[in-house]
Specification:
The complex is a heterodimer. Chain A is an alpha/beta fold. Chain A has a domain of 152 residues: 3-Layer(aba) Sandwich (Rossmann fold). Chain A is built from 12 helices and 11 strands. In chain A, a hairpin with a 7-residue loop joins strand 10 and strand 11. Chain B has one domain: Rossmann fold (3-Layer(aba) Sandwich). At the A-B interface, helix 2, helix 6, strand 4, strand 7 and helix 8 of A face helix 1, helix 4, strand 4, strand 7 and helix 6 of B. Strand 7 of chain A pairs antiparallel with strand 7 of chain B.
Chain lengths: 342, 310
Amino acid sequence: MKDNNWEKDLVFHPEYQNDLWEESYYLIDKILKNYDSDSDIVTLGCSVTVGCGVEPEQVWATQIAKNLNLTNNIIAMAGGSVQWAISNFFSYIEYFKKPKIVLALFPDFLRMQVASRPKFMIPINYDDQPESFRPESHDISDKNKVIRYKFFPNKRYQLDEKYLKLPINAKDHFPRETAFDISIQYIKMLEAYCNSNNILLIWSTWFPEQEQWLSLNLHKTKFKNYIPVDMRYWHAKRIDDRKEFMCENLINFYNDKNYYDKLLKKENLILFSEYQETFCDPEIKCNSKNLCHLEFSENKNFYSASDSTEKYRGHISYHAHIHVAEKFLKEMEKNENYPWNK
Amino acid sequence: MHYYLGQLYDDFWHESKFPLNNIWWHSPEKGQNSMGFLSEEFDSCADMVALGCSYTYGVGVEESKTWAQIIADNKNLKYHNISGSGRSAQWAINNFFSYVHKFGNPEIVVALFPEFTRIQIASNPKEMTTKYIPKDVEIKSNIIRYGTFTNKRTGDKYFKAPLIAEETFPTETSFDFSLQYIKMLELYCNSNGIKLLWSTWDKHQESWLESNIDKTEFKNFISVKTWEWHVREQDNFYERYCQKKHSSIEVCNYYEKCHEEYEILYGDNFYRASDRREGKPEAHWGVHVHAHVADTFIKHLNEMDNCERQ
């Protein structure tokens, strides 16, 4: 069955381009409203960098800025993708002075920010969601108005669905491989821009398996500005009251030369599971805790983020934020301009 | 079920590096360098790099007498051509960043982009594929990468797995990506002292950009005025540089006599592309249009040179 108006509708005419441009997520206006002035540091990221689950002063990037007495503008959004953060950074520098430093803690490379018209593609299958769940950006009342939204592509499309009908839902049917390609292309462009403009760029990812893969394959990727922040060594278990610990078992596991072989022998392996307890017996309290920074242990969120629940691990704890900040600071110390004090 | 994301990353990374040029079901074409570009070997950075699609690649013109080659000849520049038939702005710009990563910055970048609704995507062929794969090609790879035209939807309301990218990838997303990549190219070139000029051969797009340039805030766009040319059957499908309106049956005799040196050299290919067939509405340009496009770029490059001197 065909919609006879469809092709006519999509002809590349000026009105259509106006419509596309109108909401184009350069988001320049929104970006400008967020910042009062230039800053020494610009930080890019997602919810971890926004500070979900911790206090604003506990966020890794804020700790770094405070430590070095530098100003910091944060370009981050909960659920934001690599592509979202970097495209907004490029919009930012059109209006603000180039920063001296760009720090980034990226999520998994599979997240996407896309645009579509609701008559053709919608973010998720709304049949499975209550009306109240729908974010503002998911206003699909006008089926022809372009909407822009973030989503996490499912790990595999629903291949059992032999036939699909419009509108397609992005979460299930947008190719993850494209999302991955786009993310690495954006990072490559960010590196090229910063390195050629004498901006110190250091980036990492909190996503454990991605970090592990990058650590093993950095020569292949040819990325120049990546550092691992060792988030893959942390776990949180119910039996530990969901407290986050850097676990020696995980360190040993990931650093084993036979990592791949061991991994593939695991039965029913699901890494980055909610509690990432694959390499410690879930029934035994973790006694290989790397106990450090105890001087901060009385602070709120030290052991687990405030959004950690029985069912959801939540974001990273204040303690993990401290470690992330330290990793970045250690790398920054190598720069000839360190500590950039005015 | 085993689910190890790192294995997927291995797959994802495969072929995602430079050059993103290997259309895996195509054989290398005559004149392509070892990286698959229709250019001399990329051994060191050129003075000028040209980005684009089939127009820049040289489809339809003999001896690669493309607009970019004419610029390079005119200004006596060493030039590398990063273009491919059917390719998108995103593909060309991504390859440009790989090029500078490997060879450093050129002095000049010129680009002639296609419609913004093209995109280079990757997918698992069991889930999404392209209608342009020849039927006799067996797909063995877990991931395929291909250019897609997302403005050619068929109007179907129902789809069968595997999905066809041309029918199911959102046009609006391709458009957004193209704009973002161009924005990043502009910022990179402008902050590195690279002279960048870009345009598009798509008439509607070019016309929209010209009248909305303030809104877009693009800094390096120039118009090559492709809408000033027309091709009609009664004119023997010759391309005419014409701003006059004609009746539908009138033969157009309005064209300025220019670029005669190319007319002598290229004969019929001067007036129309070699892929122009009677009755076929879509084809590339003849040498004459390439020469005019090159003239526009050269004029703007000279102006930039003059500004520098002042």
